[in-house]
Amino acid sequence: MSSPTTEVPPSRSLAGAGLTQAEAGRRLTRYGRNEVEPPRPTPLHQRVLAQLRDPLIMVLLGAALLTIAIGDHPDAVVIGLVVVFNTTVGVAQEVRADNAVAALSALSAPHARVLRDGTPHEVSAAAVVPGDTLLLGEGDVVAADADLIEATVLLVDESMLTGESEPVDKAANDTISSGTVIVRGRGAATVTATGAASALGRIAALLDTGRESTPLQRRLASLGRVLAVVTIVLCVLFFALGLVRGLSMSTMGVTSISLAVAAVPESLPAVVTLALALGARRMAARHALIRSLPAVETLGSVSILATDKTGTLTEGRMVVQQLWSPSGAADVSGTGYEPTGHLSSAGNLISPERLRPLRELLTTAALCNDASLRPPRQGADEWRAVGDPMEAALLAAAAKAGCPDQVVLRQTCPRFAEAPFDSLRKRMTTLHHLPDGNVLVCLKGAPETVLTSTVLTEPAELLDRARRQATLLAARGFRVLAVAGTELLVWDLPADEAEHGLKLLGLVAISDPPKAAAAATVAACREAGITPILITGDHPATAHAIAVRTGLVEDGDAGRVVIGPELAAGPDTDVTGIRVFARTDPQQKLDIVHAWRARGAVTAMTGDGVNDGPALRQADIGVAMGARGTEVARQAADLVLTDDELSTVVTAVEEGRRVYDNIRRFLVYAMAGGTAEVLVMLAGPLLGLPLPLRAGQILWINLLTHGLTGVAMGAEPVSPRTMHRPPRPPGQHILAAGVWQRLLVLAAAVTAVSLTAGVVARSMDLPWQSVLFLALLAAQLGVALGLRARLFTTQNLFLPASVAASALLATAALYVPALRSLLDTDPVGWSGTGLALAAALAAFVTARLMRGAFHRRA
Fold this sequence. Notes:
single chain; alpha+beta; nine-stranded antiparallel β-sheet; 30 helices
């Protein structure tokens, strides 16, 4: 039900515009509500089944079945809890990600003003229909796509849809999109599209894409298949050999199942989950909130970092950086809208005499201005712009030059007439009363409309010099304004009649400057083998200038900029050599991400606007800005930066590589130990050791080595050279790059030293099976310490503590009566303990040598 508004009635040009209430009702039935249709919810049972079909979980379920089969119910319960935990986390992350489309609805204006029956009414934005006449004012969020009927000084912020940092001037007959914000002025527009047919609706459709498995999931799935086949073959082989040696079928059956449990690193899911969770927690402490645990590792494989410009590489605030006047030029320091800084030339402060014309330039720009600056609010630390960001930047620069405060200036020189800026004239003129009774004319605008003989009374040589300077500044990516003015004795004509015979005061170069850390961040990406690319909706010259200033491309490499229409015209364009994309729309951003992924790259995409949502969703890692980003971007992303700093992405990549390294380190450790246990069981009888280990002893070794110790390896600190090596290829097997070689060498070493200890113990008439049990366990613990990237670090005391605890429990198995009875062990004395310690030392030394041999690939 709509209610009439009490605002100013519509202009005469809108007479007869709008719909009747009855017609609006009919169209609402025909076209539906002006909402983004929420996705059909996936039933909970389907989500759970999808999680359980994960190969890693299936390996874990297989291990649980094996433990139940051998009667090891406590281990079965623990494994079951890990499955429940992993499934719960996975389902929760899926539900969270599906909120991306739903967040689009929140961006729509909750209410809109429309003409109904010739009268302004306020209605729910969902009730707006095609054909409605929207009444727009400053601060309004546009409720639907529409064509402007009339526009008065209308300035629209389209950054959430286009990514372009500067508000856009709009005139009658221009189009306006849903979700955009009216920054200044007023207007009226006829609605052309609502709901799914609107700009927000089309982006919602692009967001409706399924998630692909991460590189880690693909690698572990491949490993799981290999482990399953190898384990079955080994168990059958061992079972057959035992029967050939005359051992009973029941004994060999239980031992074969125990061997299967030893061969499968069943604690791998727990290690992976812990490593990912710890990585996520460390990222959160460093301003990076991860929304999907597998994405932690994916960060370590990122090879392409696609970043937007505004607020990511740049500060996201317009700043006056350079001034030019006929008498000289100056650089302007300071950041943001804070009126703190100074004017300098060649690094030296401007003298008072040279400062005078620049102050006149900035005073005029501050008077010909509708914006204002607001000091930090309680709890905030930044100055804010109210109105056009470009005009706010002029006010900040005027304060830096020592011009009077904006409030004092406007009281001293009150405005009494104006010719507002529009897209045809491209300039704005204001008239002010001076304290002495004269009239001050202030004008600013685009150089091409100001630097003409019809506006200025300046020599042709000066005008040519000013035009050349404006061209140079524009080529460097600056938004350039020309400022002019004059004093008159009296004036009683329209303001636009005063736009003649003015004096040129100078040029103002405005930009959204790069962040101080942007260049260092780009360099860090290159050092880590990550290729940074820029994708923006901004002008090509602006995009290229920022790319050069941040080191993303080399200066003079202008041919590297590709604009969106070129991509649309040639969908087969090879993007691999392109580093800067400008004037892109949401579909083109999506196409760029697709193109890189099709070439085998692992992509990370940063963004903050609605227009970035589809690309964030499609990229391997979507990175959203937490402070200034839209809810759509945050929901579509895998990673949210709470500090909006691109350097945090590099930090997150380091954590991702750390997680992957720790998982690979655990695999080397666990699979080398499991392989050694299998080899001991197969080779022992050949050396006169009939049944090297009993089923319970194998399980006890497995519990102590793959339990606390294995899980502790997931918390190891980052390796020293982590960010000085290229990312791993997405198709690389998890055991590639030297891992399987290290695994086999370590397995052989552990097997050799363990069997040696057993054979020596047998020759010394010691309880050789118990010595072999202790030596095999100790050798694996020695490997765990030897594989550390930082041997004496204190960052993960959990690992040496868990090794010590496992060693105590191993000793307890030999001396505690209940455990001795359960595991069928005997005390080994000092001689047997010495043999076990020797095996541990030999395994430790071998692991350290392996790290040295493969450190470049570790």
